[in-house]
């Protein structure tokens, strides 16, 4: 059973950076398609980035160009490095995992059966 636990959220000033982590247990991270989504209350969950089993990243949404997704296989951990943050980036960020990335296709949340509990990022 895959379990994902996010960390690294918190408060950050506009223009600053934040690095989120997602610890994977119950499976090997490098064998999973893994991604980050975010959600603002009252809005739909938005795709941010994903990384496939070959460590190829794909970015989506308004964070594209300001974010990097990468994986430390030795630590079985996924990361999201964000920079030049604005108050509009305030959201709860979720780590997600699934068996396949469906290369070339948009990131749909229903393709990810495993989810973390989320970590809040507040930019002010």
Topology of helices and strands:
Blueprint lengths: L2 E5 L2 E3 L5 E8 L7 E7 L6 E6 L5 E3 L7 E6 L4 E6 L8 E8 L15 E2 L3 E5 L1
Parallel strand pairs: 2-11
Antiparallel strand pairs: 1-3, 3-8, 4-5, 4-9, 5-6, 7-8, 9-10, 9-11
Measured on Cα atoms, how large is the radius of gyration? Answer: 13 Å
Average pLDDT for all residues: 95
Largest sheet: 7 strands, mixed
Q: What count of helical segments does DSSP give?
A: 0
Query: Which structural class best describes the helix and strand composition?
Result: mainly beta
Ranges where pLDDT stays below 50 over 5 or more residues in a row are none
Q: Give the strand tally.
A: 11
Sketch the topology as an H/E string, one letter per element: EEEEEEEEEEE
Strand content: over 45%
> Termini, distance in Å?
37 Å
State the helicity in percent bands. Answer: under 10%
Specify the overall morphology.
Answer: globular
Features:
single chain; 124 residues; mainly beta; seven-stranded mixed β-sheet; four-stranded antiparallel β-sheet
């Amino acid at each position: 059973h895959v379990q994902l636990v996010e960390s690294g959220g918190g408060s950050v000033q506009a223009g600053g950076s934040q690095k989120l982590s997602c610890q994977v247990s119950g499976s090997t991270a490098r064998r999973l398609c893994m991604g980050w989504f975010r959600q603002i209350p009252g809005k739909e969950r938005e795709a941010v980035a994903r990384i496939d089993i070959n460590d190829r990243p794909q970015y989506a949404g308004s964070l594209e160009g300001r974010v990097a997704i990468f994986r430390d296989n030795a630590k079985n951990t996924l990361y999201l490095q964000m920079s030049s943050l604005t108050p509009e980036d305030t959201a709860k960020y979720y780590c997600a995992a699934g068996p396949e990335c469906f290369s070339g296709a948009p990131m749909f949340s229903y393709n990810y059966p495993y989810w973390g509990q989320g970590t809040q990022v507040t930019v002010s």
